[in-house]
Amino acid sequence: MGKMNTWEVTYLENGKRKKIRTQADTPVNARHQLQQAGYVVLRVTQQTQRHVKRISVTLFIQELMALLDAGLVVTEAIETLCACSNDEQALEMLEGLLEKLYAGNQLSQAMAGQPDVFPALLVNTVASSEQTGQLANALKRYHFYEQRIDQLRKRIRGTLTYPLIVLTVGGLIICFLLGFIVPSFSQVFEGVNKLTRSAELILWWGQLVKQSGPELLLATIATLTAIVVLCKQRWVKQQVMAAAMTIPQLRQQQFLTILVRFYRTLGLLIEGGVPVTHALRLAQSVVPASHHSQLNAVVEHVMAGKSVSESLESQHLTTPVAMRLLQVGERSGELAGMCERIAAFYDEALERAIDTFTRVFEPLLMIIVGGIVGLVVFLLYMPIFEMAGSMS
Fold first, then answer.
1. Is the pLDDT reported for residue 54 higher than 60?
2. Disulfide check for 170: which of 77, 182, 369, 377 has CB 3.0–4.6 Å away?
């Protein structure tokens, strides 16, 4: 069987035209699924991942939690959301859930039928809660988990946003100086017989811009476009990341980021009743691929009878602080709570590191960009000072 894809099937039911999304490896099998149910299939189109990602799973969870807390059962809650939804993509997702629920499936099974919308972590959290009847509490735990992970993601993005803005503005200022101010300024030296080297440089650049201005502009745009395209390439990102990880401080902060995501995910799953070995396997989705072999080894050690703390320590997926807390959690039976404490502890450490980086790097970046702009301005006026000195 090939890779499972999502297909949108348009069919007729009692003379009415309807649409549904289904999972199949080929469009023929997707069509066959509906034909077996007795429907007349009109069209089968593949749904791209970008198409379904417009749906806000976080909003869906918030609304579902509110309705469940109000006393509605799952089917009634989703029917209410379906009646209130105006978004076509969200409506298709809700109708797909209702169809599975009407067929006798549980909510986790209905969610598993839409893997492009609902992550495996959410599906397993819901599945574990269905056995205890604590669906609302499980959704709250997952919502809290998503909030914390989203806050971490926003902090990292926010740290990188300001330097990008400063570099962009500084680059535009430099381009303006070199493209307009320097050529205009070079006209001052066109009739001078004896020029200093700095004046000759400015005059040469001014003439070059006047003669080949369009070519220089196109070359600049092409260079910037090439840089942007290269930065989006996966292998370029990997090379840049590998180069950045040669700095010990950055390597340590990346390791803390991995620990925060891993232990928060592990705590969420264990608290929901997911077995430890299965939780460790699911936690692979939130760590880089370079750590998957280590997690597989941890699972093997745990299945062989070793404790979670010893297994994680043997694969260097813990720290002295995390090791102590895990041992306490294993003795007290509060392993899930200790995993959350470990994540909170290193979350604060990571936040302090980000604040320190921001306080040091942002002024340094301003000095560098300001120094480059100041150097260009200085080169503009230096020939005048040299000529004035020679005349005196």
1. no
2. 369
User: Taking Cα atoms as reference points, which of 256, 258, 284 lies closest to residue 269?
Assistant: 284
Segment 66-106, tens digit of pLDDT = 888 888 888 998 889 888 888 778 888 888 888 888 888 88
Antiparallel, parallel or unpaired: β 5-13 and 40-46 = antiparallel
**DSSP β-bridge partners for residue 23:** 6
Distance, C-alpha 154 to centroid of its chain: 9
In angstroms, rounded to a whole number, what is the distance separating the alpha carbons of residues 323 and 80? Answer: 46
Q: How far apart are CA 188 and CA 381, in angstroms?
A: 11
Amino acid sitting at position 289 = A
Strand residues in the chain grouped as ranges (E): 5-13, 16-24, 40-46
The residues, ordered by sequence, that sit 6+ positions from 195 with a Cβ below 8 Å of its Cβ are 189, 203, 383
Cα 232 from chain centre: 14
CA separation for the pair 377, 138 (Å, rounded): 61
pLDDT 10s digits, 245-292: 788 877 888 888 888 888 988 888 888 788 888 888 888 877 887 888
Backbone CA torsion sign across 49, 53, 58, 63: negative
Residue type, 204: W
CA angle 351-290-316, nearest 5°? 65
Is residue 266 within 8 A of residue 280, CB to CB? The reply is yes
The closest of 89, 157, 96, 146 to 122, measured between CA atoms, is: 146
139: CB partners within 8 A, 6+ apart: 61, 64, 65, 68, 125, 126, 129
